[in-house]
Amino acid sequence: MNTLTLWFHKMGSPPTFYRVASRIEPWLFATALLSAAVGLYLGLFRAPADYLQGESARILYIHVPCAWMSLFVYAFMALNGAIAIVWRIKLSEQLVVAAAPIGAAFTAITLVTGALWGKPTWGTYWVWDARLTSELVLLFLYFGVIGLERAIEDRRKAARAASLLAIVGVVNLPIIHFSVKWWNTLHQGESIKLIGKSTVDPSMLWPILIMAVATKLYFGGALLARTRIAVLAQESGKEWVRELVLGKERNS
Amino acid sequence: MSGGGAGAAFFALLRRDLLVMWRRRADALNPVLFALMVATLFPLAMGPEAEKLSRIAGGAAWVVVLLASLLSLDLLFRPDAEDGTLEQLIASRQPLALMAAAKILAHWLGTGLPLLLVGPLIAKLLGLDDRAIPTLAAALALGTPLLSALGASCAALTVGMRRSGILLALLVLPLVVPVLIFGAGAVEAALTGGTARPALLFLGAGLMLAVPLAPLTCAAALRLNAA
Amino acid sequence: MVENSDAPPLLEARGLSFARNDEPIFGPVDLAVRAGEALVVEGDNGAGKTTLVRILAGLVEPTAGTLLWQGAPLDRDMRDAKGMALLGHHLGLKPELTPRENLAFRAALDGVRRGMTTEMALRSVGLEGYEDSAVRTLSAGQRKRTALAALLLSGASLWLLDEPYANLDRPGHVLVDRMLETHCQRGGSAILTSHGLSMPALARVGRLQLRVTPP
Prior knowledge:
The complex is a heterotrimer of chains A (252), B (227) and C (215).
Chain A: H1 3-12, H2 14-46, H3 60-87, H4 90-122, H5 130-151, H6 155-188, H7 202-234, H8 239-251
Chain B: H1 6-23, H2 25-28, H3 30-46, H4 50-72, H5 74-83, H6 85-91, H7 96-125, H8 133-157, H9 165-175, H10 177-191, H11 197-226
Helix pairs in contact in B: 1-7, 3-4, 3-7, 4-7, 4-8, 4-10, 7-8, 7-11, 8-9, 8-10, 8-11, 10-11
Chain C: E1 11-20, E2 23-33, E3 38-42, H1 49-56, E4 64-69, E5 72-73, E6 84-87, H2 99-110, H3 118-124, H4 140-153, E7 158-161, H5 170-185, E8 189-194, E9 205-209
Parallel strand pairs in C: 3-8, 3-9, 6-7, 7-8
Antiparallel strand pairs in C: 1-2, 1-4, 4-5
């Protein structure tokens, strides 16, 4: 076994994972909150208003990082799904299951902020724009993974089925994206771009990058929290959980 | 011991599934009847004006075929899981992906092929221009096996559940978006005087990709669900 | 039959255990069957007999433990020369097809024992006259006999039988015993489950007791 799988096996041991995760988790949330505060302050108060779209363009400081995350989380899920299927590593299965609702939330935020931005810009909440449409399909893909996982009784089997579906989804994702873009050009010519090819002013770029870091840190924290709770629920009969709970009661 | 080669097993399974379908031929007609009935909903919902209907005919035919093929997916692996023949397939020494391929092919012959024949008829009923009918048939010829292949992967994932109905649809529909887009796009191109070639080529490429990948996914999902 | 105790067992399991949702179902269990032996797995409902058989058949992955086939590790994904036949709760017959058609398919899937034919197999389980009636029109006992005929037809050296006596009348019990005896005399072996009421009347029978794990 190479060092990577060894590391996975060590981290896959529930007590170790629980201990490490509960130590890192508050730091991730704290730094996420801090960077989000900085990013939002720069974006909402310091960056200049877009000279074409005005103040409404500021919603992009949330919309764009969330859109990046919606794809990032799916890729993360599929990568862990592949690890879970090929090397049968339990921790990876649990990461897939834990990541799906977070990714779905990022995708939903992307769609909602996109619609809110669309109202003043395009005069309507929804247009069948290529990006919005493929983002909607992505949301359905997330729902599929979540639905499949919930529908299977055996937790282990459910997680492995979700992993497999995430892999199938990631193979299809570029094809779906491409087909939707093709469909869009077929029906309405070149689609309206969210961000034009024009150079982005550094004062607008920095808040977006900081927000991208903030969303990733939040994802890390939320992922660890969800996985940690899943591990705790699954191991509820075990000795170390009993010790953990009893120890906490004694201390309080 | 004799017999039991992988090729022989492939054809034996294909033959068995077709024979079972033949014995239940009344059921096998259901997707086609469903497609025809849904097709009649369009004029009822949108009004009988020929002009309006003919504009949506190609897309409507695609949606109808897609829904009908979706409806039949639950029968792909579930009966085998319930009577224990799936267990025998998994426990046998034959490559499971090849067995899954035989089952997908049988499913396409049983439901995809009839839909491929009835699809142009539906489009004609809705008033699709004659120019576009051959393109629609070609697109369906490439698209229906693709629907079977993509659907089979999802059907295999849900075979362990007691009932999968609506969840199966939820899993399949986002995955078949490209099939619908290129399928309907080909018809649209033929109607507007453009070339349908790119769309048909994309469908063909998708099929080439699905032919090896879908049976492998099915095999992994079936193994998973046997546990 | 010449006994050769030096040869590795046909199938051996070491430290086999299984847990579902991290609840232990059974194990760890060690077992071995040699050529010519039958092993009865006993236990009450919920003791994990069916799961054990499904693990041995390669349908379910054990939580821990190893499986050896003639002394070599049995890889889940490489079961070319496996030579196992399974008779589970679900008989693996298509109800729409006749016993003859069902057996023909199984022959293509698993191969045929030399010198055996579909006709002979169906005759030995007492299904003459039913060869061409759809399985769905047969009684539960007749269906079970059809599945037993599939075992006779297959060239497998190890039979994995989950509750082979269920749904069978007294002549059916005798039939299963006779099949097991002939199979073992030929150097084949079998692992069967039983909840203790019916036991095979065989000379060389090993026993394995599975106990219900308290939650």
